[in-house]
Amino acid sequence: MSDEAPSKPAEATFVDDPADMDLGAKVTEAWLDFRRALASALVTLPEGADVELTLDPSASGVGEALFGVTVRATGNGAVQAFAVGNPSLPPEHRLGRAAVGELVALGWSPPGVVNGDDRFGLQQPVGDGTRLAGVITRTLRDVYGTPHPAFLVYTVNPDELRETFPPLAAARSQPPGGGPAYDDHIDLSALSLPEQVSTVIGAMMNTPPESLPIDRDGDIGIRSGSAMVFVRVRDNPPLVDVFSPVLTDVTASEQLHVRLAELTHRMPIGRLYCIGDTVWASVPVFGRDFQATHLMLAVQVMTGLADELDDRLHGEFGGKRFFADPTGEGAADDPPSNGGPDDDHHTGMYL
């Protein structure tokens, strides 16, 4: 009989704890990835082709307003770009004076100047993709208020170009007709855990897995009202973490911790906790013997829970929601509108 003590099982390591995440840096890096990908893609755009980038109204809460930019290769080494202006927007979402001034400062010509189009226009050499990508990125982010490139959808015309057009980072390609990506004949057990997760989330978001908004950390981002939900796959132990930064810039207090403990006790699954100045919600799903229905339930619970809790906790303890209410109601403690203090309307915020 050996006198050696039995070996201990390997301890679970959580070196990528969401609570350690720098949310501002995460959003900034996502926009940098998008700008770089767009710059590379634009210089390959063949004559007669165009790319349409649109803030997804179903994800951003802007109703029928379609904020977006179209880029078209016109030939002779030139491209034209067009940015949506007030003639195309419903009254409640029209751009204020500051937003219009920012478009002009970015280099857009007033509506009607470029090709007689009623949108803001821009024309330049196709080889200067870096500058154009920078202008488009700032327009989508700063003027239209897109909080994260994950809430951009894009289409490429003609359709046959979609097969070779490079992905635009976290922005989602919009396939013709859409359709769920997860079919019943797919054997999930034959896939790796990350592949299983992306297949299931793709089906829930009606998006092909390869078009999901996945950032550099490997997290899938899902917008739910004024909340942001992330899905992360862990290796040791095999686990899928569905989590959300429910509230940021909140002052930790005994009352807050007691309130989070009470709410956690009432939750069917998951927990709420505060680290630093951020309140987190988390629902884990076991990765071993992975069940698609468990992940679907966790995502459904978290998207509904996060969007409800950020409003409730914001009312009780202040702080900031991840995204401002698109109606502007109850958002007095959130950042000012992107268009400036004299803007009549705003389209959303970003960190």
UniProtKB/TrEMBL annotation:
User: Which spans of this chain does the record mark as coiled coil?
Assistant: none
**Basic and acidic residues composition bias: which ranges?**
342-351
Kindly give the Pfam families that the UniProt entry links to this protein: TY-Chap1, TY-Chap3
Region named Disordered: 324-351
Cite the TY-Chap N-terminal domain residue spans from the record. Answer: 29-152
Domain TY-Chap central as annotated: residue spans: 193-325
Annotated protein name in UniProt = YbjN domain-containing protein
Upper lineage? Bacteria, Bacillati, Actinomycetota, Actinomycetes, Micromonosporales
